[in-house]
Amino acid sequence: MFWNHRVLRRYEEGEEFYYIVEVFYNDEGGILGWSEKEYVFGETLDELDTILVWMKSALDKPVLDEAELLAQMDENNHE
Question: What's this model's pTM, rounded to 2 decimal places?
């Protein structure tokens, strides 16, 4: 299993929002799940800086749509 930061599009009460979350993958690269919402914290300022760099790199990847991911996961669970 591995993870990275990704941008996740979520609709709440009819409005579109974007979050940077941790996405967890299986060994084949399939998405297993994601964090609800990401909070930035660390034990040092250097650690915070590193995490912010990782989070910023999520903007260079395609946006994940939460509704589509949930539908795919539901479909996979019923196979």
Answer: 0.84
Please state, in angstroms and as integers, the Cα–Cα distance from residue 6 to each residue in 30, 42, 51, 76, following that order.
14, 19, 13, 21
Strands (E), the chain: 2-12, 15-25, 31-34, 64-65
Amino acid making up residue 66: E
**For residue 52, what are the contacts with CB-CB under 8 A and spacing of at least 6?**
40
Q: Are 30 and 53 spatial neighbours (Cβ–Cβ below 8 Å)?
A: no
What tokens appear for 67 in the block? 């509704």
CB 5 within 8 A of CB 54: yes
Tens digit of each residue's pLDDT, the chain (79 residues)? 999 999 999 999 999 999 999 999 999 999 999 998 777 888 999 999 999 999 999 999 999 999 999 999 888 777 6
